[in-house]
Write a structure and sequence with these properties.
The chain has 186 residues and is an alpha/beta fold. The chain is built from 5 helices and 10 strands, in the order ββαββαβαββαβββα. A hairpin with a 2-residue loop joins β3 and β4. It is globular, with a radius of gyration of 17 Å.
């Protein structure tokens, strides 16, 4: 099936990864505004479940849905080699621009009241800032971290908090802010 909006048309994609679209923080379920056009309507697969949780007392927030207009994407972004992407990632350049907020839930990792986020191919700084403004008044601290990763997408492929003071980290993609963790005693 082809989906159409005023800004694009795209075939759909399977909806088998709720961790990409739904972020649970405390008693709140946040529907995330993902960046892939093929995933624009993916939230529909989870609406009945979200409504069930809402009826049982969960809070439900839908982040601003991006238009996914061409301006959200760097039309000149090179897809030639890993080294091209590594150089661009080091410069803070990704296929998504800062035209409007977009983020995948899978680019956020929670540890208590601290939430770690990464800028990636599918999560932009506007999306991270939206999360910061939404969550910090509720007592959460959003930290932006980055890794030596030529194609960052989904923080848990690089960095997983698995217990107090214990992180599983991909040795090929070291965290640039590791001193922040040491200084904080994490």
């Amino acid at each position: 099936e082809v989906y159409k909006t005023p800004w694009f048309e795209s075939p759909g994609l399977y909806a088998s990864m709720p961790r990409d679209i739904l972020l649970v923080v405390g008693d709140e379920i946040i529907e995330c505004p993902m960046a892939w056009r093929t995933r624009f309507f993916e939230y529909r697969a989870y609406r009945s479940l979200i409504k069930e949780y809402f009826r049982e007392g969960a809070n439900w927030t839908t982040a601003p849905k991006p238009t996914m207009a061409d301006e959200l994407y760097d039309q000149e972004y090179p897809m030639r080699s890993v080294e091209d992407r590594r150089k661009l990632a080091e410069e803070g350049k990704f296929v998504t621009t800062e035209f409007e907020p977009c983020f995948d839930a899978a680019d956020f990792m929670r540890a208590g009241r601290d939430i770690f986020a990464q800028r990636s191919q599918v999560t932009n700084f506007m999306g991270i800032e939206w999360m910061r403004r939404h969550l910090e008044p509720k007592g959460y601290k959003v930290h932006t971290i980055s890794f030596d990763d030529p194609n960052p997408m989904h923080i848990d492929g690089t960095f997983c908090i698995i217990g107090p003071g214990l992180v599983l980290s991909n040795p090929d993609r070291p965290c640039h802010q590791i001193d922040m963790f040491r200084t904080a005693g994490w």
